[in-house]
Specification:
By secondary structure, the protein is of the alpha+beta class. It is built from three helices and three strands.
Amino acid sequence: MRLVTWEDKDGYLRQAWVKDSDPDEMAKSGIRHDVPDLSVIDWDEVQKELHNTLVKRGLITWQDVQDQQSSLGPAVLSILKKRLIALYRQKI
């Protein structure tokens, strides 16, 4: 078996296991090997929480972001990381 990466009609990269003798085109019907379904994340809640986190950290203007260059990434990660970890745990 070998892992093939392909792009679906919506532009998402997908992976699937296929037999060594199968052509890459068979990946669409192969054994899926994909990240968790990100559409189940409550993106409205993410938006609100990120907004509030940026306000609390004082990241309001471009100048704020430039002055606190190491703050933006951790702010975003603090919101998304826990949700992604939860999705990966559910996938097991």
